[in-house]
Amino acid sequence: MKPKVFLEFVEIKSLIASVLPFVLGSLYAIYNYHQVHLGYLALFFVASSLFHMATNANDNYQDFLHAPRDADNQEFLEETNVVGVNQISIGQARTITFGLAGVSLVLGLWLVTRTGLPLLWMGLYSYAVGYFYAGGPKPISTSPFGEFFSGFTMGFMIFWIAVFINTYDVTTITWLSSFQVLVAAGLAIFAISNIMLANNICDMAEDIALGRHTILYYLGKPIMLRVFAWSYVAGYLCLVAAVWLGVLPPLSLLTLISAIPVYKNTRLFLQKQVKRETFILAIKNATIICLSFAVFMGLGLLV
User: Fold this and answer.
1) What's the whole-number mean pLDDT along residues 19-27?
2) Distance separating alpha carbons of residues 228 and 277, to the nearest angstrom
3) 8 A C-beta contact, residue 239 and residue 292
4) Confidence at residue 111, expressed as pLDDT on a 0 to 100 scale
5) Per-residue DSSP letters for 125-166?
6) Average model confidence (pLDDT) for the chain?
């Protein structure tokens, strides 16, 4: 397989969605616990990145594998799905998917032996979501819960695991500390879940034709467009709450400046929902939000 095809198959461009929560979780640990385990953190970064790519690959080949073979879906099979467009064999797709996931799993299990069992349970949840998101008899991505699981798993779990790996030897997980991490990660959770929501909004007609009953199928596009817009507001409110709770540096509030470009991009998306033209706006919003969050949180640590 050519490198270009491989990178397209694993959707390398979407890796930013897991890298930024990783950075944010690490900064959170430094601010609240004043320490970082760089070696373990580097291994987690590699493991989570490999698993992210494996999940994307699994999504692509599962979509191709389970799409109905009829005239209505011929365009999807031959011109849209990366497996069909590049004529990737199912054997190749599975080898790449399970190869990436396998290496990630080995690294993760080694980290468990060094940091403790909480990482095992976090990891098992993440791996289960990663597979069943597109695999199994009823994939999560074809259900009304795709947005929740994508945002919660990438926006919160990666953030939380990064915190745990850096602090496993100085603190224990409690309901209070978990809630504080959840609030601090809220901005990333909503921004990332909106990527999935924007994708489903753009693909609504295609999803219905393929038998996918996403939340758009049940609530309709007008309602979910409002949810899309207000999700960003909810994320910013989480940021303010986290600063008020004292778990984020006050300078993190400068992230609110990102609301200006996010508002502009959101207005454009609300006016037109076309996969090849405006879906990218949701990705841009998530990148702007999480990157500015990381920058201003980092400045808060320095000050």
Assistant:
1) 90
2) 17
3) no
4) 95
5) HHHHHHHHTT-SSS-GGGSTTHHHHHIIIIIIIHHHHHHHHH
6) 87
